[in-house]
Amino acid sequence: MHLFSSRFFRGARPAALVALTLLAGCGRDLESETVGLAALADRTLTWSLTDVDYFEGVEPEGSHRFTVTFSLAQDDRCTRLGEGVTATFNGAPMRLEPGGIDDTAGRGVCVPTRAFLDFDPNVWGQEPTEDARVVLQDGSATVSLVLRGGKAKRRLAFQGAGDADRLTRGQTYTYQWQPAGEVPASVNATLLREGGSAAANIPLTQDAARVSFTVPAGTPVANHLLTLSGSAPGTLLECTGVASCEGTVFHSEEIVVTVQ
């Protein structure tokens, strides 16, 4: 078992969680306009599935989260979702944030309406893959989004002979994006030597859901933190109640390896 101090990772981890900022200045003199779901029919619903596995330490909030966010209103309007709205993910309640004017940052900011579910990666890893169905409802309308195979734990599984935690300089290693049937748009790999401060990017080749890299001959013989990360577009099966739906799956995982 390889032991890395917490100081090794602090400040060295890649920015695996990409925050999508959907805020716009609304001005202190504006007020939130309370609306029902029917008033959001002309909006874009952006979904995101974040699945980030860290080697050690407390995982940041949102490391394993499915989120849907409505685009902001046009013409400098700022809307807030009214009472009586429910949001579910495959029947489980989601946390709903109605949006509207937020003055906590010291100036009036228009915050978008969104809903999210924080999932347990260990539970998802044991359960079969399912389509992800998000439904928001009130007395005026229903908004629904269905993502094929959305409820599944993402992994980059080690393929071939040998041990996943022992890599040899000059050798090529292959990993398979999971779940089956989902193809990442891109995958990245980095190596960070124990005690180092800068991660080295490793060139990858990709064949559909399989990616391979060769450990550079000049890599120091030492323990390293291997980070594999990638994104996939996902496949929408349904998008109703809004003008359009768009989004992406993001997965990252850290593995401590010995380079020899």
Automatic annotation (TrEMBL):
Full protein name: Lipoprotein
